[in-house]
Amino acid sequence: MNRRTLLQGFALLSTLPLSGVYLRTRTAAAQANVEANVIPLDKPHSAWRELVPPAAYAVLFEEDTEPAGSSPLNDEHRDGSYICAACYLPLFDSQHKFDSGTGWPSFTQDIPGHTAFSRDFKLFYPRTEYHCARCGGHQGHMFDDGPPPRGERWCNNGVALRFIPRSEPLPALRS
């Protein structure tokens, strides 16, 4: 197989429909986004560089991935909220966190309307990538191999999140 044939095959893959989980979740999130009134920020990614640590910036705005098992959030079991490390939008509630065995913090669902989706072909097959709906920061990928009842696994980079215990007030959103 020559390079041109290989590239044409990858281009063809991008036209295939995605899994039902992606389409169902994307549609539900799009509807919830209207209900949640999350207004995307009109702020260039470079403007976040001074506001977040370098490792978080690399994940959030350069779509890097932290090493598996490196996040202290893997061992976080308190009641609270997981917020975007850049703009502080709440993305996940602790009641939906579970140990997926992957080495990254994982959740069974997001806070409806607080994430946006795109397709990612970095591993040569389509994956559902999700971002903070407000600042656009890359959070992770959603897969359809999670626990019942939804069957979703939201695999998140720990450096892209901050944990806020329920006993503490959420910080004001960053603009």
TrEMBL record:
Leading EC class: oxidoreductase
Which PROSITE patterns would you find in this protein's record? MSRB (PS51790)
Q: What is its EC number?
A: 1.8.4.12
This enzyme catalyses:
L-methionyl-[protein] + [thioredoxin]-disulfide + H2O = L-methionyl-(R)-S-oxide-[protein] + [thioredoxin]-dithiol
Could you tell me which residue ranges the MsrB domain spans? 45-166
What InterPro entries does UniProt report for this protein, alphabetically?
Met_Sox_Rdtase_MsrB, Met_Sox_Rdtase_MsrB_dom, Mss4-like_sf
Quote a single Gene Ontology cellular component term. cytoplasm
Q: What is this protein called?
A: peptide-methionine (R)-S-oxide reductase
User: What is the primary gene name for this protein?
Assistant: msrB
